[in-house]
Design goal:
Layout: H1 8-12, E1 18-20, H2 23-35, H3 48-57, E2 65-70, E3 74-77, H4 81-88, H5 99-104, H6 110-113, E4 116-124, E5 130-138, E6 141-150, H7 152-159, H8 168-181, H9 183-187, H10 197-208, E7 214-216, H11 218-228, H12 232-244, E8 251-255, E9 258-262, H13 276-285
Antiparallel strand pairs: 1-2, 2-3, 4-5, 5-6, 7-9, 8-9
Length: 286
């Protein structure tokens, strides 16, 4: 592909169509729209199969979907290869014309090109915020497993308004966009695998708790020492980690009558990378 090929500009200026024939081509097309901030044009139809179903309903070929974009109309489909060529005077483009955009366009630098976010689950916090657990991908590999929370209005107004129903699909789509926009910040979170065994235990219990908290009283601490071979030296190490990772608001020592208290925001403070290397290794073996 000629590096000076800018035929993709023809599509976004309404000068030609693009033909999609399979899921891989659709994903490339969707990533192209996402980079330009035009992914909202897909109207929540985010899979090739969704558009195949729409094509069937409109009595079009579900295995050859030809998209047209006009700035004043948005994204439409319905052409055949013949009707598209008759209207525009040239063959409908394939997604190969997008390659030079991905390779050369400054809007699509190396960091953006490889980013992907997958929402694993969502829940409502005690503060009525929307929290989520997400996997971040770069170069097709899992690079972070993070949790975060956002005000309901922040999530709502990404793609909707005060009257929009917050469906699971809309919430996930909004969260993916929010996290994608701060992708590098999440990669800078400390990795929980590099923390002490005690800090990992507190972190896990906060994440697993229905109340999103961990309370360890003096009796619990004796039990933890027996079960996990913790010592009072581990408490001293934990204090150092609280300073290092600035966790004064997330972990309390000798707090409210407890030996240790882990608070809700602790789950948002780390990249839980412990299973990522294993998952990436499995994908390499496959």
């Amino acid at each position: 592909m000629n590096k000076k090929d800018i035929r993709w500009v023809d599509f976004i200026t309404g000068s030609n169509t693009i033909t999609i024939t399979n899921e891989n081509e659709f994903n490339k097309f969707k990533e192209f729209l996402n980079c330009l901030g035009l992914d909202i044009l897909l109207n929540n139809y985010n899979n090739f199969s969704d558009w195949q179903q729409l094509s069937k309903i409109n009595k079009n070929d579900p295995n050859c979907i030809i998209f047209e974009y006009q700035p004043n109309k948005g994204l439409t489909f319905g052409y055949t290869k013949e009707s598209s060529k008759k209207w525009y005077g040239i063959e409908s483009y394939t997604t190969e014309v997008l390659d030079s955009f991905f390779d050369n366009n400054k809007l699509y630098d190396g960091k953006y090109k490889t980013k992907k976010v997958k929402i694993l689950g969502t829940w409502i916090t005690d503060y009525d915020d929307i929290a989520c657990n997400a996997i971040l991908y770069q170069n097709g590999k899992e690079v972070a497993n993070v949790m975060d929370s956002f005000e309901e209005t922040t999530v709502r107004y990404i793609y909707g308004d005060s009257h929009t129903e917050l469906t699971d699909e809309l919430i996930n789509k909004s969260l993916e966009k929010i996290i994608n926009e701060s992708f590098e910040n999440y990669l800078e979170l400390p990795k929980i695998s590099e923390c002490s065994k005690l800090l990992q235990e507190i972190y896990d219990r906060v994440c697993d708790s229905v109340a999103s908290m961990c309370h360890v009283d003096s009796i619990d601490w004796i039990s933890w020492k027996d079960c996990y071979n913790f010592t009072d030296d581990d408490i001293e190490q934990l204090k150092e980690e609280i300073k290092r990772y600035k966790l004064n608001e997330e972990i309390g020592i000798d707090d409210c009558g407890y030996k240790i208290v882990g608070y809700e925001n602790l789950q948002f403070a780390f990249n839980d990378d412990r299973n990522l290397a294993k998952e990436n290794q499995n994908s390499l073996e496959i």
